[in-house]
Amino acid sequence: MASIEFDNVSVDFPIFNANSRSLKKRLMQVATGGQLGADQQGRVVVRAIEGASFSFKDGDRVGLLGHNGAGKSTLLRLLSGVYEPSSGSVGIHGEIGSLIDISLGIDPEATGRENIYVRGGLLGMRRSEVTARMDGIIEFSELGDFIDMPLRTYSSGMSLRLAFAVSTIVRPEILLMDEWLSVGDEGFKHKAEARMSELVQSTNILVIASHSRDMILKTCNRVICLEHGKIKMDGNPNDICDLYFG
Do 106 and 118 form a contact (C-beta atoms < 8 A)? Predict the structure, then answer.
């Protein structure tokens, strides 16, 4: 059983040397991101998330909507443990898998095979687990003999296929995504879509940030809409998409 509980969670980022910035620039930041304020030391801070309270349970497929800078990525990074809350409490039960940056840790000088071990390790897999699944990863990526060549010899499409093949072999209880992953040419894209659908179906809780109405309506059973770091709406996908997209 997996669950996520946020109780009045806020995240502040201090902005150093901000006093020298013009008021105009500060106002531009207010318009595009979180709210500006000051902490007890007088430092300028951006409140990226303010007073977020919600709970997710098994079966939840949650879509995150909001303009760029609304707080979607910050919320995903809170859930993944990259950020700690400045205030409030976070309770997470269940193994978390993140597809926020599938190319994280990839080394262009290392071979494809070596990169599979590196990426697998970052996903929390033991080396023996990666070895056991190596053939399947190589077959899915369709890289053939290139698997033992340095990544710098790959095209961008080949690199993405390798990163996708490794990153989607995990089956976490809680899956975090920043947009739906779709890579490769038409042939590989079909395989990728099938793999993604299988991954989403197997996870207990999905949290995905997206700008796609169709994807949200197709995949999610709940939507949270963020604005300047605050939860503006939380509810049924159809109702919220009608209000958000117009």
Answer: yes
Shared domain check, 110 and 176: yes
Handedness of CA 119, 122, 124, 125 (dihedral sign): positive
Burial pattern 162-201, b for ≥16 Cβ within 10 A else e, equals bbbbbbbbbebbbbbbbebbebbeeebeebbeebbeebee
Query: What percent of the chain clears pLDDT 70, i.e. is strictly above it?
Result: 88
Q: Tokens representing 73?
A: 């990525």
- Is beta strand 222-227 parallel, antiparallel or unpaired with respect to 35-38? unpaired
Q: Is the pLDDT of residue 40 over 60?
A: no
What tokens does 233 get?
């709406």
Same domain, 218 and 140: no
Residues 103 and 143 in one domain: yes
Regarding whether 90 and 17 lie in a shared domain, the answer is: yes
For residue 25, give its domain range.
3-94+208-245
Q: What is the DSSP code (8-state) at residue 33?
A: S
- Domain identity same for 89 and 104: no
CA triple 115-120-125, angle to 5 deg: 155
Helix or strand or coil: residue 93? Answer: strand
- CATH code of residue 217: 3.40.50.300
88-122 confidence digits (pLDDT tens): 999 999 999 999 888 888 899 999 999 999 999 98
Using alpha carbons, select from 135, 132, 157 the residue that is nearest to residue 147: 135
Same domain, 153 and 110: yes
